[in-house]
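Input protein
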Amino acid sequence: MLKYIDVVKQAIKTFEKIVNKAFDIHLQDLISPQKAFVALRQIRWPDGVVICPKCGSIHITKNGHDTKQPEKQNYHCEDCNCYFDDLTGTIFSGHHQPLEVWITALYLMGLNLSNRQIAMELDLNEGDVQSMTSLLREGVVERYVQPNLSGTVECDEVYIVAGHKGHPDKVAESGREPRCRRLKGAPGRGTLEKDKPPVIGIVERNGDVVIEMLPDVKMETIEPIIKATITPGSLINTDEYAIYNHLVDWGFQHKTVNHGNGEYARDEDGDGFCEVHVNTVEGLWSLLRSWLRPHRGISQEKLPIYLRFFQFIHNARRRGKAVLCSLLNVLLS
């Protein structure tokens, strides 16, 4: 009797798999290639005037459509005799995956899906998705202009465990054996050599953030970043860590809270509002850790790119379709 029940259960599971497979719907099948190209043209040429990517001329004539992708328009420049299409000169040009797949992958990246999750959603090879997301992430970072911060600014540092995932030659150089489990960072304040690189966060209150990976935490390491990021004369709030002791000498105002003595916020003017603190930047670390968690360990070679991409998404202050528009704008700029 027991064997008969097991056989019936197995038959039911097999039937469910067949039904689910028959009604399987892939996300990319629901996306219109025509709408993808319309959106790209609207962002690339918002005034409706097509501009030659070679000479910048507006004397452009349409020259039919692409044979493999009928939605892609071809053009001819009457001034420099250049032939181009909707994708020429963009990050989406010269790849075998259609435009709608690239845009969908970018949308899912904005939602912080991992490469494996994106591959499952789009029914693509995980290696292909990794190449696509790496290209898109690096494209956003290269084109994004770092913000300049002013007013009241907070600075703090955090340590993220990051080894040489995917780089066996680097692991061999470090002298340690390849690991089978999650890499454990060295205790205390970390460095790049200890596979626990420090990350500095600089936050303008009610403004943008800047996040940078550092080789170590020293005055000479943070000085060029702070000077390049914060407007001289701005007020910088930090904890009592000694690396910030020369902020006044570098041309900034400086106030501290002493975490070692249990002080986390201070009201100096008696208005009942504690204006001296670094709670904003410390709250940023919770968001960053949550953002990095789905990616299941990032190598220190790739970590700066992931940090900058997180910074872009955070500063965009948009989610869903809205952040997709911001991502496309920076990629097509």
Notes: The chain has ten helices and ten strands. Residues 29 and 122 are 9 Å apart (CA to CA). The longest strand covers residues 152-159. The two ends are 69 Å apart (CA to CA).
